[in-house]
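Quick one: examine the sequence and fold tokens given here and explain what the tokens say about the fold. Here goes:
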Amino acid sequence: MAKAMSFLIILFLLALAPLCLCLKTYGGYLYPQFYDHSCPKAQEIVKSVVAKAVAREPRMAASLLRLHFHDCFVKGCDASLLLDSSGSIISEKMSLPNRNSARGFEVLDEIKSALEKECPATVSCADILALAARDSTVLTGGPTWEVPLGRRDSRGASLSGSNNNIPAPNSKFQTILTKFKLQGLDIVDLVALSGSHTIGNSRCASFRQRLYNQTGNGLPDLTLEQSYAAHLRTRCPRSGEDQNLFFLDFVSPTKFDNFYFKDLLAYEGLLSSDQILLTQNAQSMELVKQYAENNELFFQQFAKSMIKMGNISPLTDTRGEIRKNCRKINTY
């Protein structure tokens, strides 16, 4: 009887214990307190540098958030994207999704330099990416979350992975969903994470086909609101001006909110990959409506999906390394 009572008491105490925001990975755990003893000022340093960068250029918040996404979808969240070409390494920065568009690398260099002075060879570039993405979201008015930490950096890159794994702005819905599912993400994650397009810009080259030749028949995309399309054509001609920038959410382009989803309901999503969330799948259409109606619901799911995305195949324990310079592997 005494043993049974003891067992029940233990169960009761376990039920009251706080849940740990720990994510099990192959060979180890990611958890928010990873640097509490080895580099207690790590998160403060990242936030400070990101805040200065975003104050100088508000667009930088979206750029840093995008880098985390483009890193995690190739070989996992291992900072492979940050490597420059060297020796046998061909940089992922040269891939179609990244060339002439991925940016913010100098901000990450600044963060890494500050962290190396504070606590040398301790904080990984992969964790810097994850923290910078969270801080960029918060600084622009979005939700916050505790970032599970403990990732290590890869010693290689994958140009082919970058070309093949990252959804293109003109992909069909099922193609995009398949690429998300291959990373362990579902349709809810797809719609919520697409909401990051509430901040930032896109180039004319990324959506031109919607204005002139959506399906190869010489006709524009009729799911794009026509007066909005006419406005876009004034700065995005049939040829040339590829690098001209346009707000992804023209209503509140520097504020992280749910206007992106309201834009989709008005058929004013800039990219084809945005608008098809409303037009090509019933479940994603319902999620778009819910997030457009309820900003808090969107924020809650975005935070959950960012944590989930940040747990894609991280290197932990003895795998990988802690790079001293995010642009190149360590030399021993």
